[in-house]
Predict the structure of Putative RNA-binding protein Luc7-like 1.
Amino acid sequence: MSAHDQIRAMLDQLMGTARNGDDDKITVAFDDQRVCKPFLLGCCQYEVLAATRMDLGECPKIHNLALKADYEAASKDKDYFYDLEAMEQLEAFVADADRKTEQARKRLAETQEELSAEVAQKADKVHELAERIGETLAKAESLGEEGLVDESMKLMEEIDNLRKQKSEAEAEYRQSIPAATYQQQKLRVCEVCCAYLGIHDNDRRLADHFGGKLHLGFIKIRETLKEFQVIAEERRRNRRDSLRNRRAIEVEERERGRRRRSRSKSKEKEKDSRSKRSRSRSKERRDRRRSRSRDRSQ
C-alpha cells in the first residue's frame, strides 16, 4: 500500500464515507447485507488470519474502513445487534477449528508410538513447561519492544526458572524411555490454533509460535467470541426479565379488569335490588290506597 493509500485509509477510518462531500460518497451503507458485520466490529476471521499459515483468502463480504467509521458513529445512538451476527459466524469458525484440532490429535495418537500413562505424563510436563517458556519469552520481547524494560527483565528471570524446571523434566522423561525413542519428535497439537508443537522445539521456535500472528489471531477470535457470548447471554437474561415483567403486568391488568367487572356486577345487582324494592313499595302504596278507597266507598 502506497503512502497515499495509507493516508486515504486513515481519513476513511476517521471521517467515514462523507469525508469528501456528496460527490465522493460510497453508494453502499454499513447496514447493507453485503457488508461484513464482524469487520465492522474488528473481528472478521478473514482479516485477523490474513497472511498466516491459515490464511482464509478474501472475505466474500465488503470490508471498508469508511463504512466502519459510519457504523461506529451510528452505534453510539442505536444498538444494531451486529454482535449477535458476528458471534454466530465466530462460533461456526471456532467449532470447525476445534474439530480439526481433535482430528489432528487422533492422527498423532495413531501414528506416534504409544507411551505408557506414566511416560506420557512426563512428556506432557516437558511440553507444558516448553510452552510456558515460549509464551513468556514472546511476552517479554513484546514488553521490551514497548519500552517496558523492567517488566521484560522480570519475565526473563521467570524464564530462567522455567528452563531449570524443564531441564529436570526432560531428564526424568529421558530416563523413562529408550534412547532411540527419546530422539523421536514427540508432537502435540496447540489447543488454540491447531499448530503442531514438538517436544524438542527450542525456545526461539516456541516464542515465534506463541508471539506469531496465527496464534495471537486465534486468541483474539476466541476471546472476542467469549465476550459476544457473555453479551448474548445478558441480552437473553434481559429479554426473559422483560417477558416476565410483561406477563406480570398483563396478569395484574387482567386482575384489575376482573375486579372492575366484579364491582360493576355488584353495583348492577344492588341497583336491581333497589329497583325491585322500590317497585315493591310502590305496589304496596297503591294497594293501600285502593284498600282505603274501597273502605270509604262502603
